[in-house]
């Protein structure tokens, strides 16, 4: 099928659909980052299942299937792993974004609500 | 697939997306913060809510209350109710607003509880000290006013909400308790306005309710008495609790190596000597504010006994720099 032929065969609905898709894609690109603010929570998913959702400012060490995830001082890292590549361990501390260990199917994401004060909220 | 079906699918998709985004926005609470200078100090209100508009309205209502509160209770404002009570000392009772009445009653309750170590009748001794101009009174000036510091001579009449100071020369000074009371009341106003969590901070007198948006407790730093203003000795994790700190670093001057500060021992009229700072945590700000001063004005042994007897949550920094944290506060305090 030629391109010209293809365009010729489009109906009004097809064109509306196309405009819709372009609009939705554009809106999503702008809006989604606004709706997913940084910092606050650490999500640990294994095999796409959410196992832990933890505040990033509470220190904790969690062993998960050959991995050791450490949360300390508002940051998270994979402290140890028995996987061959050690990519996740080499990535070190993060306070935003994600650490992904593909062989273990572990995804560690830092997310949360906007404007969460990381340090001190008040002083007495 | 037919074009009509495709369009329908696209519309459903868009609606779903809008719904998800809207939900995401509404379910994400934000922290809103505003500071104003009132009552000779910086007052910062922090709230957690989904709507900026609601936050603004609630914070404005709270500041409005606080402005009125300042007008009624200021020791220095000649038009305040406290000034009216003081002017009529030894003369007659003065009818006051419910806030002034309730607060003065609470002040006297706390005075009784601490056997006068916290004292809302401290006024005549307080006015002799001029910390701004580094002037201290003579011994005889202080001795002369000691009989006027009798809080049992604050007379209440529940029938018409009036207060009278029995003796001429007495001065009611609610400075040691008003901010904690204001923190409680402000937190109540903000809660009633639908603010799910927040902090009402009247300088060092803080009432915190709920949690941060991420569900963790609020973090309140305790100032280091001899460090820079942002140096901390520890951080408290608070949820539905108030905290106050009394410190010898707030208003003071040093003369011949001696530090003269604003927390006076009511029995002597001189600055208390056993502490650098006293921090106390309690569900009620009115209690923390009265007791930080009350404990500070005790001697070390008496303060420790009082804390144990009443099962209070405290962190003490003694004059020699050593510290004490009550066992019931240890879980909430992270030392720096």
Please describe what this structure looks like.
- The complex is a heterodimer of chains A (124) and B (336).
- With 124 residues, chain A is α+β, with helices and mostly antiparallel strands.
- Chain A folds into 2 domains: 3-35; 41-111, N-utilization substance G protein NusG, insert domain (mini-chromosome maintenance (MCM) complex, domain 2, Sandwich).
- Helices cover 29% and strands 35% of the residues of chain A.
- Chain A is built from 3 helices and 8 strands, in the order ααβββββαβββ.
- In chain A, strands 2-1-7-6 form a 4-stranded antiparallel β-sheet. A 3-stranded antiparallel β-sheet of chain A has the order 3-4-5.
- In chain A, strand 6 (97-101) and strand 7 form a beta hairpin.
- The longest helix of chain A is centred in the first third of the chain and has 24 residues, at 12-35.
- The model of chain A is unreliable at 113-118 (pLDDT under 50).
- With 336 residues, chain B is of the alpha+beta class.
- Chain B folds into 2 domains: 30-72 and 177-335, ApbE-like domains (T-fold); 80-176, ApbE-like superfamily (T-fold).
- In chain B, 35% of the residues lie in helices and 26% in strands.
- Chain B is built from 9 helices and 16 strands.
- In chain B, the strands form 4 sheets. Chain B has an 8-stranded antiparallel β-sheet. A 3-stranded antiparallel β-sheet of chain B has the order 3-5-4, with helices on one face.
- In chain B, helix 7 (178-192) runs antiparallel to helix 8.
- Chain B is elongated, with a radius of gyration of 24 Å.
- The model of chain B has no long low-confidence stretch (mean pLDDT 91).
- Classes of the chains: A alpha+beta (124), B alpha+beta (336).
- At the A-B interface, helix 2 and strand 8 of A face helix 1, strand 7, strand 8, strand 9 and strand 10 of B.
- Strand 8 of chain A pairs parallel with strand 8 (218-223) of chain B, so a sheet runs across the interface.
């Amino acid at each position: 099928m030629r391109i010209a032929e293809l365009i010729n065969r489009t109906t009004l609905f097809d064109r509306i659909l196309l405009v819709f898709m372009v609009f939705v894609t554009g809106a999503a690109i702008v809006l989604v980052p606004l709706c997913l603010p940084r910092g606050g929570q650490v999500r640990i998913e294994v095999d796409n299942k959410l196992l832990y959702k933890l505040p990033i400012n509470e220190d904790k060490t969690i062993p998960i299937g050959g991995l050791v995830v450490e949360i300390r001082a508002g940051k998270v890292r994979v402290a140890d792993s028995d996987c061959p590549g050690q990519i996740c361990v080499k990535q070190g501390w993060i306070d935003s974004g994600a650490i992904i260990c593909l062989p273990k199917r572990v995804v560690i994401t830092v997310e949360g609500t906007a404007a969460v004060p990381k340090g001190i909220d008040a002083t007495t | 697939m037919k074009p009509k079906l495709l369009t329908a699918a696209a519309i459903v998709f868009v609606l779903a997306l809008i719904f998800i985004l809207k939900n995401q926005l509404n379910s994400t609470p934000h922290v809103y913060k505003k500071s104003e200078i009132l009552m000779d100090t910086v007052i910062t209100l922090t709230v957690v809510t989904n709507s900026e508009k609601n936050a603004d309205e609630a914070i404005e209502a709270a500041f409005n209350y606080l402005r009125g509160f300042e007008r009624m209770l200021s020791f220095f404002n000649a038009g305040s109710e406290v000034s009216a009570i003081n002017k009529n000392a030894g003369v007659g009772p003065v009818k006051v607003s419910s806030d002034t009445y309730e607060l003065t009653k609470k002040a006297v309750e706390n005075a009784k509880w601490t056997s006068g170590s916290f004292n809302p009748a401290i006024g005549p001794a307080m006015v002799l000290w001029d910390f701004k101009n580094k002037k201290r009174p003579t011994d005889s000036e202080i001795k002369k006013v000691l009989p006027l510091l009798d809080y049992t001579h604050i007379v209440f009449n529940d029938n018409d909400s009036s207060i009278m100071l029995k003796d001429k020369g007495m001065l009611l000074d609610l400075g040691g308790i008003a901010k904690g009371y204001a923190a409680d009341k402000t937190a109540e106003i903000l809660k009633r306005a639908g603010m799910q969590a927040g902090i009402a901070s009247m300088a060092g007198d803080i009432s915190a309710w709920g949690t941060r948006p991420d569900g963790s407790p609020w973090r309140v730093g305790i100032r280091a008495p001899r460090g820079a203003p942002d140096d901390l000795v520890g951080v408290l994790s608070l949820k539905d609790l108030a905290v106050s700190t009394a410190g010898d670093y707030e208003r003071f001057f040093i003369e011949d190596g001696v530090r003269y500060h604003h927390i006076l021992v009511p029995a002597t009229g001189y600055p208390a000597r056993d502490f650098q700072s006293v921090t106390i945590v309690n569900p009620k700000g009115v209690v923390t504010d009265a007791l930080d001063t009350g404990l500070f004005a005790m001697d070390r042994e008496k303060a420790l006994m009082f804390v144990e007897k009443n099962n209070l949550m405290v962190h003490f920094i003694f004059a020699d720099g050593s510290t004490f944290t009550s066992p019931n506060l240890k879980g909430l305090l992270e030392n720096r």
